[in-house]
# Entry
Amino acid sequence: MSSFVCIVCPKGCTLNVTREGEKINVTGNSCKRGEAFAIAEITNPKRTICSTVRTVFEDVPVLPVRLSADIPKSRIFDVMGEINKVVVKTKIGRGEAVIKNVLGLGVDVIATSDILKTAEYSLYAEKKSV
Ligand code: SF4
# Structure
């Protein structure tokens, strides 16, 4: 039997998983999402990444990013390696890809902020108010 905490929602149910051949039994879950998470965790665990990438812009040296979908847990460090290589040189906005199809996983690394597009205006506003 395996036991682990469900990370799908803040309730944090303790999931107990037993396997009999092809059949996977889950107990401890308070909802179906927990059962689905437990089965995925046993058969093909996946995770997402939220991180930052560097930029060439002095006023916004880092840009927040995330993955467009979950990836296999075993590829987290590989993808982080790719994210760490990125230096953004154009003023991209929220939802735009920083890396398309990272490592051929069918998932993009995307910006989660419009700060590069708005920074110029906020700096301008600051200068005007001084
Ligand atoms: S089993 Fe359901 S209620 Fe419990 S932590 Fe997971 S998602 Fe939340």
User: Anything to note?
Assistant: The beta strands are 2-5, 14-20, 23-27, 46-47, 50-55, 62-67, 71-72, 87-88, 97-99, 109-111.
